[in-house]
Task: structure prediction
Amino acid sequence: MNDFSALSHLTRNARETHALILIVEDEPDIADILIAYLKRSGFRTAHALDGQRALQMHQTLKPDLMLLDVLMPNLDGWKVLAEVRHRGNTPVIMLTAQDQDVDKLMGLRIGADDYIVKPFNPAEVVARTQAVLRRSIDYKHGSGTSVLRVDAFEIDIESHEVTVCIDGNKVPLVLTATEFKLLVQLAKSPKKVLSRAELLATSSPESDSLERTVDSHISKLRRKIEDLGLQGVPASIRGVGYRFGSIA
Result:
C-alpha cells in the first residue's frame, strides 16, 4: 500500500475542515510534494518561497497552520516564527534539516507547535498537521464550560482567547496552540501538580517530543505572563512537575 492509500483514513476530517496550510519552503520539489499530499487529504494550500513573502501571505491569507522551513533566503524560519508569534497564535510546524536537540528546543522556545526533521515522510507531515490542528479544535469541545476563571485569568475555550486582569483592566495574553493547551490543562485543576509526561500527553499526544520540551513551552508561557507583571505562573514543583500557580 502506498503512502497516499495510507492517508485515506485521515481524509474525511480534513475535508470537513478545509483548513488552509501555508507552506514556506524554498525548494520547489519539496513544496510540490507537500502540496500534493496535503491536497490529497483535503487541505487547501498556499506556497511562499522565502520568509518575507511568507509574512506577507500570513497577513493577507490568515492560514490555519504554517509549515515553516528554517533555512531560507531573505528571512530565516526563526525570524518568521518570531514575527508570527508576535502577531498571534497561528499553529506552526517547523521543517528543517537541523536535527540537534538544541535546534528543536530553540524552535519550541520561540513558539513552534511541532518540529519535523528532513528528510521526512510526507504522509507523516500530513498526520502531524492534522494532529496540531485537532489539538486546537479540541479545546472547543473538551470542557464542560467554555470559560475558565482562575485568579486573574479568564480563559475562553470557545474563542481560544486568554485575558488577564491587571489593575482592573483585562489584558489579552497571546499564546501558541500548545501554550494554550498547557494553560487550560493546568487551570482545570489549579492546585494539582501535573508531571511533564501528563502535560506532554495532553499538549502533544501524537508527537515524539521529549518530555523536556514541556519545559520549553512552560518557560515561554511563563515569560509571556511575567511580561504582564505576574510572577510564578505556572509554578515549578521541583522533581515533580508543574501546577497552575499560587491561588487563594
